[in-house]
Amino acid sequence: xxxxxxxxxxxxxxxxxxxxxxxxxxxxxxxxxxxxxxxxxxxxxxxxxxxxxxxxxxxxxxxxxxxxxxxxxxxxxxxxxxxxxxxxxxxxxxxxxxxxxxxxxxxxxxxxxxxxxxxxxxxxxxxxxxxxxxxxxxxxxxxxxxxxxxxxxxxxxxxxxxxxxxxxxxxxxxxxxxxxxxxxxxxxxxxxxxxxxxxxxxxxxxxxxxxxxxxxxxxxxxxxxxxxxxxxxxxxxxxxxxxxxxxxxxxxxxxxxxxxxxxxxxxxxxxxxxxxxxxxxxxxxxxxxxxxxxxxxxxxxxxxxxxxxxxxxxxxxxxxxxxxxxxxxxxxxxxxxxxxxxxxxxxxxxxxxxxxxxxxxxxxxx
Amino acid sequence: xxxxxxxxxxxxxxxxxxxxxxxxxxxxxxxxxxxxxxxxxxxxxxxxxxxxxxxxxxxxxxxxxxxxxxxxxxxxxxxxxxxxxxxxxxxxxxxxxxxxxxxxxxxxxxxxxxxxxxxxxxxxxxxxxxxxxxxxxxxxxxxxxxxxxxxxxxxxxxxxxxxxxxxxxxxxxxxxxxxxxxxxxxxxxxxxxxxxxxxxxxxxxxxxxxxxxxxxxxxxxxxxxxxxxxxxxxxxxxxxxxxxxxxxxxxxxxxxxxxxxxxxxxxxxxxxxxxxxxxxxxxxxxxxxxxxxxxxxxxxxxxxxxxxxxxxxxxxxxxxxxxxxxxxxxxxxxxxxxxxxxxxxxxxxxxxxxxxxxxxxxxxxx
Amino acid sequence: xxxxxxxxxxxxxxxxxxxxxxxxxxxxxxxxxxxxxxxxxxxxxxxxxxxxxxxxxxxxxxxxxxxxxxxxxxxxxxxxxxxxxxxxxxxxxxxxxxxxxxxxxxxxxxxxxxxxxxxxxxxxxxxxxxxxxxxxxxxxxxxxxxxxxxxxxxxxxxxxxxxxxxxxxxxxxxxxxxxxxxxxxxxxxxxxxxxxxxxxxxxxxxxxxxxxxxxxxxxxxxxxxxxxxxxxxxxxxxxxxxxxxxxxxxxxxxxxxxxxxxxxxxxxxxxxxxxxxxxxxxxxxxxxxxxxxxxxxxxxxxxxxxxxxxxxxxxxxxxxxxxxxxxxxxxxxxxxxxxxxxxxxxxxxxxxxxxxxxxxxxxxxxxxxxxxxxxxxxxxxxxxxxxxxxxxxxxxxxxxxxxxxxxxxxxxxxxxxxxxxxxxxxxxxxxx
Lengths: 366, 366, 432
Prior knowledge:
heterotrimer, B: 366 residues, alpha+beta, Rossmann fold, CATH 2.40.50.100, 2 domains, 6-stranded mixed β-sheet, 5-stranded mixed beta barrel, 8 helices, C: 432 residues, mainly alpha, MetI-like fold, two-stranded antiparallel ribbon, flat
């Protein structure tokens, strides 16, 4: 290599080094891990973009790693190199991560904003949503959906029992390839009261009973793995029913105009929210951001982009219209009284204890 | 040319034409009879059509027009494996995954010959080519000469009446080649098999053949025994292609029975045998073998006497090659025997050279 | 060959002679040769060193780490040292609970652990839950107040969580209270420890992995067979074509390499699903009825079709390059020697590209054994392979089990390769 070329390269790298250090001195850069797709999009539009507009020296980088968030947090913590600043996570995984000490404990009243009406966070966030290290953001639900073109008019399914009734409602059904939610529905359809489902499920007899119920529709089942698959299967008329996340179903039905109808009966509701990795480099900045991003208005804003319910009581009344479609979002929320008539609340503690064993059994059963 | 009577020929080409692209004939009107037990060589430069003829005979190419007869029967529509012709390929084409014995066994196996019989024949064939010890070797473990012998043995082991050889000695070094030439010749004489041999090496052809067909431009230029071919070439191409040759160009001045007189470009007059000229005034090429040119001879014994200047002397042991300028031709060569009373020449010396008109053949202008 | 003979002769001579060969200045010939070659050896090593380093970092080290993970078992012994000690005398096969001392020791361990490192308790919960479902909750229910609790502990523990009143969890603490464990390998082989410490098969409903290994091998073998059946004629045809057309055809074969996974997956789904192109065509042609549409995706068929498509180039490339090198004169010679075209093909042509088949086969088989994303997307349940389980465990609650399955898979591949090497010989591999 010629001397001149070397000099040019040397000068170039020196300049970029200076630029980089200057950038570091000025700007705050956060890596936020979330689920990707429409969900990340709703966070970007409700939280990240408005914040960056107000604070031009901040930069928020998205990482679609939430599906493997627990494994990612573990390995980053093990390697002593935590590069994630904020992670969107399910409460069950957050519970595990919290107990393993790889995410930060949160004092909600201390660290988060009061509701707009002055209610402290511990009361403003929905009952049962707070976790030791977990800041709730939304409440979403897993629902059974059907393609109305696959059924004759006037004979639409309405309940989870109908989902298990292949005689009156023939057609294939797509369910996720894991036990959670499916086993709850099996028991619910078999007549178990939603309140008692997990007590039954914790016994061998209860598990047998759930599998026996699932057996009745086994021949018609198709299994999906990724959240995007279920609306696709339904749209392609590969299946008549599909279980899925209500936000994705909403997107397919309202944005894409697919003839999907949600069966709100027996919807399995769960929270989703933020955790802050312990030993992150920007913990103070993250907390500053979270204080704002989880306040009453921000949570209500997110509902304008996706049909997941805000996790604060004070946000409920502020839920407006869809930002692009202009339709009222309130009635599409899992928490809307018309929809919330027979919910099953996902028991995370049960699943952290049992998912390993039941997943194995479920795999064998499939 | 009218179709010949091929009744007594073992192999006959009758007005055979071949084109690959529909535009150019690689074989133009070939007529050739080969007698039973004959060793016939197709000799010619590459692209002269000789290999194509061989491939048509073997059945790997089909004649575009005309018939090929084997033992009186047309074989155009008989696939190669039913022709019963032995063949030795240029690169031997020994099957690399079989041992020598297996290679020899192959043509016998496809003829359903019993195991005991096979072994006998294989042993005999290998002994014939002095490869009896090598039955268990793989081709990759053999030298070029050994592979050659095996290929020969394989072509002969099933006792075909006709064996085709496509430049089989091309890859061997000079000494080995000469030895193999004799061996093949002896095998031919012993077995009495008919051999059609393709080569571009004239000394090979002269050594082995009963008759040689000289190919050029898709035609047989001359078909004759080796001595006739050498001593009585019928056209300029054959004269130049076979053996060494002095070429002098001129115009026919007069024709006198079997002889004629030519005037060369430098004005000198040469008497020659009129072999292939169109008549007085026509252009002609004179062909004169170097060994038929003598030094210091008188005009009483030799019809043509000229003065030449020595340009170069090449010592070759048994003789000395003298390149000189004769009749304006700078490439005129004569061979001076290196015997005890040989004259010592030096470059630049002027000497008298002479030859008789019978040795000097007036051919087509080429 | 000639060279080999010559060197053999040389060996014989030096072996037979009494005197040592020396150079002109009296050094032994061998020493001198070594010196002369040292420089070039060093140079050669310098050339290889970067690759060696690269392999070490990205291959050997992670591999070793994975294998270590599959046996590494520090959680119990580090967090519950007193408990493990107190359980030493306890007989696990008797249907009896351990003595009060064990509960006391456990309480002390938990209290100290809580003080020292909360995360350790979390990891302990996870570890115990791997072997006993519900153990996580059991530990959680007693860990919080460990510092305030006083004797007798036994009843208080059982009251807090019924699991403490069962020997199962204690057996696990006793058995797994060691720095290394084999339990994950047992589980990966669908086996477990009986109460008395002997090894037994797991309950029928829980046997997962052996069958999945078998299915993975069967699927891989099927895919290997299909790539061969499809790849051989295509390669043969390409090898006989002029270069220009062969290259064009090669582009089609290589196309799956150049398209993104998602595009490919969507294409297969569009083609194969029940309302897809193939089914609709078949129904349209009246070959099958509307209610008989074939299930070709989200099941084993989907996995096989998709993976055969992706892996075809791995078969075609070595086959094609080997076939290109086989001169047509062999087939001609065989026919000339009297073999019918089929016999000539079978006995003379076919055995020659076999080293290419072997190379392609090893590639296809080994790659498909480890395939992961495609089966997850189009394989549904019956098309799942062992790698999907490895991924699930590594990303989930039992990374050690994932590591153990992965290690077993590695061992299987190595055994297969060894068998293959004995049967075919690795030097008979030919990539072109």
